[in-house]
Design a protein that fits this description.
Strand content: 5-15%
Radius of gyration: 24 Å
Shape: elongated
Strand order of the largest sheet: 1-2
Number of helices: 7
Distance between the termini: 40 Å
Helix content: 25-40%
Order of helices and strands: EHHHHEHHH
């Protein structure tokens, strides 16, 4: 998805003419992600029940867009860097998508069998096969899952 740059006024207008759940996927966001963006930029959103009132031909009140507080920019960039599960992505590309290494003590008291299995797999030792182990760590990630801090 391409990045889109909008002004606060443009996003405000979109929010009050299109339901958040329909608008957010256009920008590669979840409705919660777009709501948080609105909070960050001090843009009022329609209250709960707004679209139901419109469906019943009511004219709910619409506030004016307040001036941005000092330090809040007037432009908002949405797109690939803020993509979320709504578009099947995690918003993280390349190397940054790797999980951080977990420090593990040299000796563990009564470790879980899956931990023992993964540790042995990271050292190249023959191990048992288990559905639980393959769910927790695929063969390509077993060695990093059992990485020890030095």
């Amino acid at each position: 998805m391409e990045q889109v740059t909008l002004t606060r006024a443009e996003l405000f207008e979109l929010l009050w003419t299109t339901p958040l759940t329909k608008l957010a996927p256009r920008f590669g966001l979840s409705d919660v992600g777009l709501a948080k963006t609105c909070e960050r930029f001090h843009i009022p959103r329609p209250p709960q029940g707004h679209w139901a009132r419109i469906a019943w031909n009511h004219k709910p009140d619409r506030p004016a867009l307040p001036d941005a507080p000092a330090g809040v920019p007037d432009t908002i960039t949405l797109g690939t860097s803020t993509a979320s599960a709504a578009q099947g992505g995690n918003g993280i590309d390349g190397e940054s998508s790797r999980a951080p290494a977990v420090a593990v003590a040299e000796r563990l008291r009564d470790p879980h069998p899956v931990t023992t299995h993964l540790e042995q797999a990271s050292k190249g030792a023959p191990t048992w096969t288990s559905t639980a182990a393959s769910l927790l760590a695929s063969p390509s990630t077993q060695s990093s899952a059992c990485a020890r801090s030095t």
